[in-house]
User: Which sequence fits this backbone?
């Protein structure tokens, strides 16, 4: 099975290399940052992903939803980066090309990481890697550069800036701070972005055994791709469950779609914070004290407040909100039969089929400051656990692996599906727009 998986990954990269070779022959390098960059997001279970397994059934997908949401918060150092890919528990991938000559890349999209980094040359690799010596567009960042201090755990070696990102139970990325040329497929064209700040990881083993070659960091810090491209980005997430769905998109730069309800966006070194005022299920606004969602900036021993995250599938609610949410769901589904799941004794699960038993289930609305509402249908609240069972993908934060996260609320990616989510870092605004992502096609 390992040999077969390596062959699949290698074929994927050979195809990508051939595709970009056909494009590169007709382009010239662009020195300015592009104003329009729309590229596909690849769900890890999509048929368009090299990790797609056609033999995975409902139970496998349910396990992925549950365990990936837990693994995301396995890092005991809550002030640093969340884990983007422990045990393959990533969600969306971005394909791009780097260097000259170009090398195809497949990296994790992550709004809780601010550094774009890729694995550079290694002695053994099933996929082609960037070799800084052979790339005519590669340049190391010197220690005196203003950008060096923004790299995590930066230091100096022979006047060159280096960095180190450590994850718990996940690979380390350690190497040189540098700039390089990136190429993206965008609306059938090739967009060239020059002098992109990134990390060139020289650790022998990171993600490449699994075919992933790094992380596209879209976090708030100055070195992130979002900051480098006009301080704006958006992503559109459609049908989360359909492996054939091909319309998920990432938009970087001035063309990011800043439409819909807008709410204030607060930023730390790592996370994007929102001001959640309340939650409604249908016409019933839950009796939750809005103060439970506030950030506590004086207590540095734990993470508090509300973050929006691209790397957690499920939504996590602080206990005071979760149990009122859970009780209202149980009241609405009082005619349904509760089901215990061995894998998750504290999960709320029911016998039945989502398509039938959740017909007429009211929308869940998250109310944010400036009267911005995120409206979520039942497919953003529940998932199929077996052919005859469905479970709620809203969990209590007190069941996260580390107590430092027990007071956090996280709006996960399932709740964001069927929306365009736009980040304006300059104006500190976040936009929710209910949309069909197919509008970006063509």
Assistant:
């Amino acid at each position: 099975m390992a040999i077969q998986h390596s062959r699949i990954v290698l074929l994927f990269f050979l195809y990508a290399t051939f595709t970009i070779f056909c494009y590169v022959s007709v382009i010239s390098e662009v020195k300015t940052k592009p104003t329009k960059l729309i590229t596909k997001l690849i769900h890890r279970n999509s048929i368009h992903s090299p990790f797609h397994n056609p033999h995975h059934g409902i139970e496998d997908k349910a396990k992925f939803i549950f365990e990936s949401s837990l693994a995301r918060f396995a890092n005991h150092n809550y002030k640093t980066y969340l884990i983007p890919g422990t045990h393959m528990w990533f969600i969306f991938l971005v394909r791009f090309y780097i260097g000259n000559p170009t090398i195809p890349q497949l990296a994790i999209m992550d709004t809780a990481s601010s550094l774009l980094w890729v694995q550079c040359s290694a002695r053994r690799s099933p996929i082609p890697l960037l070799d800084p010596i052979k790339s005519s567009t590669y340049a190391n960042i010197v220690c005196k550069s203003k950008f060096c201090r923004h790299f995590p755990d930066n230091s100096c070696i022979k006047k060159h800036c280096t960095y180190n990102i450590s994850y718990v139970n996940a690979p380390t990325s350690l190497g040189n701070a540098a700039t390089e040329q990136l190429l993206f497929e965008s609306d059938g064209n090739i967009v060239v972005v020059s002098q992109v700040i990134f990390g060139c990881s020289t650790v022998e083993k990171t993600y490449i055994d699994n075919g992933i070659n790094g992380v596209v960091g879209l976090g708030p810090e100055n070195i992130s791709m979002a900051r480098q491209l006009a301080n704006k980005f958006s992503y559109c997430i459609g049908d989360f469950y359909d492996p054939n769905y091909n319309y998920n998109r990432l938009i970087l730069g001035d063309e990011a779609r800043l439409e819909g309800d807008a709410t204030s966006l607060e930023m730390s070194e790592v996370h994007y914070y929102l001001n959640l005022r309340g939650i409604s299920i249908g016409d019933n606004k839950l009796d939750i004290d809005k103060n439970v969602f506030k950030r506590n900036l004086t207590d540095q021993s734990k993470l508090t407040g509300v973050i929006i995250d691209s790397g957690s599938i499920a939504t996590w609610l602080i206990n005071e909100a979760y149990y009122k949410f859970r009780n209202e769901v149980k009241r609405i589904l009082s005619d349904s039969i509760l089901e215990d799941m061995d894998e998750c004794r504290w999960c709320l699960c029911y016998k039945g089929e989502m398509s039938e038993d959740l017909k007429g289930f009211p929308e869940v609305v998250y109310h944010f400051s400036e009267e911005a509402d995120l409206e979520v249908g039942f497919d953003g609240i529940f998932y199929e656990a077996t052919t005859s069972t469905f479970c709620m993908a809203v969990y209590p934060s007190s069941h996260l692996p580390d107590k430092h996260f027990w007071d956090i609320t996280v709006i996960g990616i399932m709740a964001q599906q069927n929306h365009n989510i736009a980040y304006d870092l300059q104006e500190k605004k976040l936009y929710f727009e209910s949309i069909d992502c197919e509008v970006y096609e063509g």
